[in-house]
Structures are given as structure tokens and as C-alpha cells.
Amino acid sequence: MSAVVVNWPFKVVQGGAADKPPSTPSLKARAISLLAQREYSRQELTDKLAEQDVSPEELALALAQLEAKGLVDDARVVETLVNRRAGKLGGMRLRQELQAKGVSPDLVAQAMTDLKGSELARARAVWQKKFGQLASSSTERNKQARFLASRGFSGEVVKQVVAGLVDDEL
Q: Whole-model pTM?
């Protein structure tokens, strides 16, 4: 390869920046890079960053600084997940996902309380999109019930939706 490429607006020289050793980003820079992609709970960030060689004290300090600046916020993680997934999932499944993210039990309980009133309507919307009509056989009813249960809707809500009960009939 020649050192200079003709018919190119820039002069290309062998060597250069590629010869420098890559610099390792700081712990805070790695955390910010992760947070730029999506919201992470404090526990998730701890787990991801602890995989690398870093002391627990340094990790706790960095996360505390990011939390003080508002970059790490478990309440925002809960809000984001609920807004994104509540239209497709029931309360039990959302609770499971929030607990898996390491969110505090108080925040999870508050989110579940807020969602409790809309679970039947959300289940009906999911059922309507998937099936659209009442089951004509017990096999089909069981299939619909299993589908809604796998999405995390409670047994009582699943029974009401699969039976085709409306709020007036309750």
C-alpha cells in the first residue's frame, strides 16, 4: 500500500492514531454510555459495571454521583417500563420485570397500585387484538385464557375477559 492515496481529498498516511494504545473510559463514562442507550436501575448498572475490574467502593461512589445528578433514577425506570409495557402485559408480569431490574419494593407496589384499576381494560384490549371474538369451544376458551395468563393478567380478569362479561354484567 502506498503512503499517499491519489484522487482523495485527504492525505492518508500509514500509522497515525491507530498506533496509539486505546484508552479505557472511566467508570462514570461507561455508566453514562450505558444510560445513553436506555434507562437502567441502580442495581442493573451495578451488575453491569461490576463485571469489569473495579472496586465496590469506587462503583458505589460513581453511582452515587450519577444519582445525585439525576442520571440514575429508579422511579424513572419504573415509569418508563410501565409506559412501554403496560399496554401488553398484566400486573403480575410487570411486577416480575420490575423486581428483576432490582427496583425497590416501595416503587413496585406504587406502580402496581396505579395500574390496578386499568387491568381489565388492558386485558380486553390485548384479547381483542389477538382474538377479537368469543370462543365457541372449551378448547378455544382455554387457549385464550392461557394466552392472557401468560401475559401476566390475574385469574379473575382472565375469567371475565374470556367469558365476555362487560362491566354492566358484574
A: 0.77
